[in-house]
Amino acid sequence: MLDQLGALADTPWIYVIVGLSVLLDVFLPVLPSGVLVITAATAAAGSAVSAHTGTAFPQMLALVACAATASVVGDLVAYRLAWRGGDRFDRAIARSRRLTTAQERLGTALLRGGGALVVVARFAPAGRSVVSLGAGVMHRRVREFLPWSALAGLTWAVYSVCLGYFGGKWLGATWIGTAVSVLALFLAGAGAAFLVRRPHRMEAEAS
């Protein structure tokens, strides 16, 4: 995979592949969009070194813009679909205790102005899906959701691209560098999942 992406690193196709993966990830959380972004950044860094260009900054910037834009667009599509099909999504969410709890927690956080939860949840497994669909089902206003979605997408994109770039630069554009970067992404996801659950645990203990 690294070799194939390396061949595409200097072509527009890499941005098409990354953009589609990130956009669809909100509906199919099993898609490894974060892994793909990291791998693409690692491949671009390796391509720059091989070509003796000295820097991969333009490619990194383009990857960040592509991943962040696709993230926000995907969030908005999921948000609008959930808004229009509220009853069906309500029934689907009601069948899952985990999703119901996450939806209630999201609503409370947004009402209290704690939109930072949207940013943190972007790193948690399936957190982006829960946030986007939950905001639509609850008919949260766009101005309450969109700015935090944009910040979440940009933060996640910058973090993922930097992992891939510096992993490739320090450890080489090899599977070892990619694996270390992906591990760092997974650790961030585990930390985000813990932080998202923590307020709920504190409220439960207080009650």
From TrEMBL:
<feature type="transmembrane region" description="Helical">
    <location>
        <begin position="12"/>
        <end position="28"/>
    </location>
</feature>
<keyword id="KW-0812">Transmembrane</keyword>
<comment type="similarity">
    <text>Belongs to the DedA family.</text>
</comment>
<keyword id="KW-1003">Cell membrane</keyword>
<feature type="transmembrane region" description="Helical">
    <location>
        <begin position="172"/>
        <end position="196"/>
    </location>
</feature>
<protein>
    <submittedName>
        <fullName>VTT domain-containing protein</fullName>
    </submittedName>
</protein>
<feature type="domain" description="VTT">
    <location>
        <begin position="48"/>
        <end position="165"/>
    </location>
</feature>
<dbReference type="InterPro" id="IPR032818">
    <property type="entry name" value="DedA-like"/>
</dbReference>
<keyword id="KW-1133">Transmembrane helix</keyword>
<dbReference type="InterPro" id="IPR032816">
    <property type="entry name" value="VTT_dom"/>
</dbReference>
<feature type="transmembrane region" description="Helical">
    <location>
        <begin position="60"/>
        <end position="82"/>
    </location>
</feature>
<dbReference type="Pfam" id="PF09335">
    <property type="entry name" value="VTT_dom"/>
</dbReference>
<keyword id="KW-0472">Membrane</keyword>
<feature type="transmembrane region" description="Helical">
    <location>
        <begin position="145"/>
        <end position="166"/>
    </location>
</feature>
